[in-house]
Amino acid sequence: MTISGILCFSTSNYEAMIKFLTDFGFKVTEDPHDQLVPLFNEGRGAHIERGDIFFNLEESTSGQQKASFNLMLTDYSEEELTRIKSLGYECDQQFSICGEANFFRTPDGGTFVL
Questions:
Q1: Per the domain annotation, does 101 fall within a domain?
Q2: Among 12, 13, 41, 75, which one is least packed by beta carbons within 10 Å?
Q3: 70 is in which domain, residue-wise?
């Protein structure tokens, strides 16, 4: 993978965000022992990736930082979606001419659409 830029999100809710991302099938590499994590904060950090998506998640040790980003992910199978729903995440289903969309709220207030 060639990285041309680094996208970083800070959160004061690090543990919950790591669990959420892991549950949603992201590869989480905590404390990767490189010069890129953490970039901006003094807390813990992780590389997060799934397919072509790659970013850093960093623990903020000051204030109430939120990594409330929104993602629309189109590469989820029905089996993965069923598994995620079985984990107890609240899901709002909406139907349109394009089909079904499932909206999940992240611990920091963002939305994942599958």
A1: yes
A2: 75
A3: 8-113
Distance from C-alpha of 68 to C-alpha of 109, rounded to nearest angstrom: 5
Q: How far apart, in whole angstroms, are the C-alpha atoms of residue 68 and residue 71? A: 10
In a domain, 60, yes or no: yes
Name the DSSP letter for residue 20: H
| DSSP tally for the chain: helices H, then strands E | 2, 8
Query: Nearest CA to 26 among 78, 67, 82, 84?
Result: 84
Name the one residue in this structure whose structure tokens are 């995440």.
89
Considering its fold, how many domains does the chain have in total? Answer: 1
Residue 38 lies in a domain: yes
* pLDDT tens figures, 27-42: 999 987 777 777 777 7
Q: Confirm whether 2 is domain-assigned.
A: no
Distances (CA, A) of 63 to 39, 56, 69, 87: 17, 19, 18, 29
Q: What is the pTM of this model?
A: 0.86
